[in-house]
Every structure is written in structure tokens, then in C-alpha cells.
């Protein structure tokens, strides 16, 4: 049993921290909305802290999952002030490689290990303990934290130096953007052609077009249901990180840039909290008028 802290109990962090408690670890949680932390403790045990400093003070490993770069800087900066030398801070937020390297340096100045460890798999993956975790940081620090991360993952992989986890997550989001747009266009084409869209998906999912998005989102797209899943606002945040990094490293992302604009159209339709598969609704809007 390890003494752990988990900072940030959103749709991902809440179940992730729960897996740690069920594994028998001593978990202290912090959330900006204290009521959610208290609810988590009532469900899982452990302790709710009022501040990141208090939560992390006695932790051997402190883990966090917050919103964006500014949140990482704020929460990590506070947690590091009370963490002891030799402990580890793990950040599961999807953020920039730049903030990962900043936090790595800040932690290192206090002899604290830091890993950037963004996840893929969504809310369902977090709830089921089946996330994919891509990790950047020192290999020895990774080896010490890997067993803890495995409690809510189906795969945990060390990708290289600090920032490598975030860069790998960017590749993930770049790939997803094109896949979802392609699936949306395919379904829209099938519907306009008068085909049975579900039957079409059933057939093509057995061939080269198959993907996670098709298996998990095609039916809800056809049914025009988007009130779940990974929000468009968060995807645009992620794609903004990808596009900014591409400007730094010289990568060309024409499809990603275009899909980001399409997500802007979805936001203009009021779809900020719709699932990312709602790209289909933007395609169908002119057709439904």
C-alpha cells in the first residue's frame, strides 16, 4: 500500500482515483469543488484535502488530472511546495510539452520526480480501468510509478524524455481528428444516398475502414445522439496544442487545421459539450433546413 494523492476529480480523475482506492492504496483527494471530493471519500474512503498543498504533503506519489496548461501550472506549483524530496508528481492532463518540461524542471529543483502522462480512452476507459497512458520523463522515475498507473490502464508506455508523453498524445489527437471527420462524411454520404447507414457501417467495419471511432461512435452518430463522451471544447483545446507545437517543429497539419475549423462550426451551433463525433451534425445542418 502506498500513500497517494489525486488532484482533480473530473470525469476522468474521479474514477481513476477510485481504482487506486480499490487497489488498497491510502488515497487523499483534492478537487476545487470540495463537495465532489467529499462525495468521493464517502464512496471510496481515504481523505479529502482542502488544498493541493495539504493533499500532496504526505504523498509518495501525487497524481493530477486537471484542465489545461494554466491549471497544471497552478496546481502542480502548489503541490510541489509541500512534496518531499524523492517523491513523484504525475500529470495526466492533456497539456503542452512546454508546460511538461517547465514542471519537470520545477520538480527537479526540489529533487522530486515528474512524469507527463496523458491518457487516451475517454470516460469509459477511466471507469473501466482500461486507459492507454503515454509517459514522458526519467526512466527510473517511470519504473517506480508504473505499477500505480497500471491500476487504471490496459497499457502504460514510457515514450522518452520529459514532454514525450504529451507529444505522443498530440499524435493521438491528430489521428483521431481525421478519422472522425472521415467517418462523419461517410455516414452523411450514406444517408444522402438513401442507404441503410447502420447496415453500411456493419459491412465496412469488417474491412479496412474499421476503427475505434467506427466501432464506438457510428451508431450514436446515425441516431444523432451526442450528449456524452469527449466534449468538443476539450478537443479544440487539444487540437490548439497540436497546431501550436506543429508551428514550433515545422510539421504540416492541413487536415487537423481544417477539422479544428469544423469543430468551431459545431461550437457555433451550441455544441460545446457535445461529443467529438458531432462533426456529422455540422455536415447535416444545411441538409435539414
Notes on the protein architecture:
This protein has two domains: 3-161, Rossmann fold (3-Layer(aba) Sandwich), CATH 3.40.50.720; 167-288, N-(1-d-carboxylethyl)-l-norvaline Dehydrogenase, domain 2 (Orthogonal Bundle), CATH 1.10.1040. Helix content is 55%, strand content 14%. The chain contains 13 helices and nine strands. It has helices spanning 13-22, 34-44, 52-56, 69-80, 97-108, 122-128, 139-149, 164-192, 197-204, 212-222, 232-249, 254-268, 279-288; strands at residues 3-7, 26-30, 47-48, 61-64, 88-91, 113-116, 119-120, 131-136, 153-160. Helix 5 (97-108) links the parallel strand 5 (88-91) and strand 6 (113-116). Helix 4 (69-80) packs parallel to helix 5 (97-108), helix 8 (164-192) crosses helix 11 and helix 8 (164-192) packs parallel to helix 13 (279-288). The mean pLDDT is 97.
Helix amount, in percent? 55-70%
Q: Considering the protein shown, what is the CATH homologous superfamily of the largest domain?
A: NAD(P)-binding Rossmann-like Domain
Cα-based radius of gyration, to the nearest Å: 20 Å
Distance between the termini: 59 Å
* Class computed from helices, strands and strand pairing: alpha/beta
Amino acid at each position: 500500500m502506498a500513500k497517494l494523492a489525486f488532484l482533480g476529480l473530473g470525469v476522468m480523475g474521479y474514477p481513476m482515483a477510485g481504482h487506486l482506492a480499490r487497489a488498497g492504496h491510502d488515497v487523499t483527494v483534492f478537487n476545487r469543488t470540495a463537495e465532489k471530493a467529499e462525495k468521493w471519500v464517502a464512496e471510496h474512503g481515504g481523505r479529502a484535502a482542502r488544498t493541493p498543498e495539504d493533499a500532496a504533503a504526505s504523498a509518495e506519489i501525487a497524481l493530477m488530472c486537471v484542465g489545461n496548461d494554466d491549471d497544471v501550472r497552478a496546481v502542480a506549483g502548489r503541490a510541489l511546495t509541500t512534496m518531499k524530496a524523492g517523491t513523484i508528481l504525475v500529470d495526466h492532463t492533456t497539456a503542452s510539452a512546454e508546460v511538461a518540461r517547465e514542471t519537470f524542471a520545477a520538480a527537479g529543483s526540489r529533487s522530486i520526480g515528474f512524469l507527463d502522462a496523458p491518457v487516451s480512452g475517454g470516460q469509459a476507459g477511466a471507469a473501466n480501468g482500461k486507459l492507454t497512458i503515454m509517459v514522458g520523463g526519467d526512466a527510473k522515475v517511470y519504473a517506480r510509478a508504473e505499477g500505480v498507473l497500471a491500476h487504471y490502464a490496459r497499457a502504460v508506455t514510457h515514450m522518452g524524455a520529459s514532454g514525450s508523453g504529451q507529444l505522443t498524445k498530440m499524435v493521438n489527437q491528430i489521428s483521431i481528428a481525421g478519422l472522425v471527420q472521415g467517418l462523419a462524411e461517410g455516414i452523411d454520404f450514406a444517408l444522402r444516398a438513401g442507404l441503410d447507414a447502420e447496415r453500411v457501417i456493419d459491412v465496412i467495419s469488417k474491412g479496412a475502414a474499421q476503427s475505434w471511432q467506427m466501432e464506438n461512435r457510428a451508431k450514436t452518430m446515425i441516431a444523432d445522439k451526442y450528449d456524452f463522451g469527449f466534449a468538443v471544447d476539450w478537443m479544440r483545446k487539444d487540437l490548439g496544442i497540436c497546431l501550436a507545437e506543429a508551428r514550433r517543429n515545422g510539421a504540416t497539419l492541413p487536415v487537423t487545421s481544417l477539422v479544428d475549423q469544423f469543430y468551431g462550426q459545431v461550437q457555433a451551433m451550441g455544441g460545446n459539450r457535445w461529443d467529438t463525433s458531432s462533426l456529422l451534425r455540422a455536415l447535416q445542418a444545411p441538409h435539414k433546413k
